[in-house]
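Need tokens for this chain, all 580 residues.
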Amino acid sequence: MFMRRHYWLACLFLAFLCGCDESDDSTAKKTEDDVPNECSNKCDGGPKCVGDDAYKVCEDSDGDGCKEWSEPRSCKKNQTCRKGSCIDSEEPEPSCKNTCEGTSRCADENSYQICTDGDGDGCNEWSEPQNCEAGQTCQDDSCKPAAASCTNTCEGAPRCADEHAYQTCEDTNDDGCKEWSAPKNCPDGEVCSDGQCNKIEPLCTNVCSQEGETQCSENNIETCSDYNQDGCLEWGNPVPCEYGCSEKQCSKFPECPKDAKICPKAVLEFNEWIDGDTSKSSNVIKKYPSCHDVGTTKVQDESGPEEYYMVNLDEPGFLVVNVKPEKKVDVDVHILSALDGSKCLARGDLSAGTHLDAGIHYISVDTFESSSNAGVYHMRVYFIPDSGKCGMVQKIMERTNDSTPLQMPVVGKVGRESHLATTYDQQVHGGDKWWPKDAYDQDSLKIHKKHTIEMYGDVISYGNHEGDNKWCSCNGSGQCGHASYGKALPPDAEAWDVNMYWKKSTKPPAGTRYLVFNPLNGRAVVAAAGYETGPRNPESMGGAVPEIHNYFGTQNGYALVFGELKNQDYAYGPIDCFAE
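Here are the structure tokens for all 580 residues:
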């Protein structure tokens, strides 16, 4: 436009100078559109790609009437420019052509080629020749086994190699020919026939239904098994039952004699309460001449009614029986080898115990003197096997206060003893010359008991019984809390100390582990024996310190079991004889 305006101005100026007439047809008819264009098109056609992700458009972008290429315009994300247009991204169009078809071809007799894109240009071409494997040649575009130089040695279906194996006709060595395979075993319980494995059909039938099942056959017990190895079960291996057979098992107890006035009841479980009532029974045995309590030779009058029980022991051990009668009921307990008063092995007012061999043994709960003392009672039977953790040693113990020796283990009345001074007490109070000033030296006793509680915690408790709060009586030298051992006891031994009137020849070494067992509740402790001789009451079988009585819940004179443990490695203190 600028050029056009200057053109007219120049014309007017020349017209003025030269007298040009504005009405001249040659100039008057010219218009602005007739002025020649001073630019030219620099492109034609449609868009074109600029790289892979942009394009240009041929257009008049500056309005001068001529076309030129626009600035590059980017394609959208995930698009590619192809032939001037942005399209969704694809594999780039290959700039090559496939030069092969198919998968493979023979290059020569011994090699082949694969049709593949080996150079990654997007087009397939034949690969370099690759050799066939040994024994193969290239035939029909692939490697195949060379013509066989062998012949088949078998044909058809499998055959039996023997009774328990078969063979198949196949090329086992890849030589192109078939031969019989190595024998292949049939599964267990099958045999080969007509080239196949088939289950063995039994030639017998089961007489019984389950391996290990039992049945009674007269006084024998038989077991179900395949005794003749014919594949079928039958009854066999008869074992005689000593007391007859019942309900598919040997009876553990003999039958009651038909002429018996009282039939014994079987004790099937130990450590459980059994309820009885002598008032509903009869009196057969009036006296047990071979049995008397420890410390006396008196034979008690058992003229009241009694009840009998029987136990069957699988192994030797110590049997303990405890009875708990109701009020106004007076019964005694006896252990017998037979239902005969002369066969009594042990007795007691409430508790009795003795060592027994394996086999049948009897218990009699008999009413003292007359039927007026008969009634309801509760009984508990404990068995401590020799092979168990609380097994005890059988031995004879001679006593200083009785000419009758004791067969150990034994059940008898146990006194309640007082405290003995320990090495800890002497250490606290200044040395091994220290002893309590008197039996009631409470200041030193408080320290003594406090240390015992620290060692054993909640197991230890003390009450108001005299023995709980008293040192052992002073000896002739004025030494209180002094044991016949002659010196202070180790603290752990003193806490669980027991004594007996053992003679010097049968006194156990100091510190020997004794089992003390309570028939009232089955509790037991590992006690220290051999330090002190006693007890204070000579009518008692033995004595035990307050800690033992308090743990058991017993008082002075209660019947307990004493016996030397087979295992001398236990620590002193409570033990559960029946835990696994």
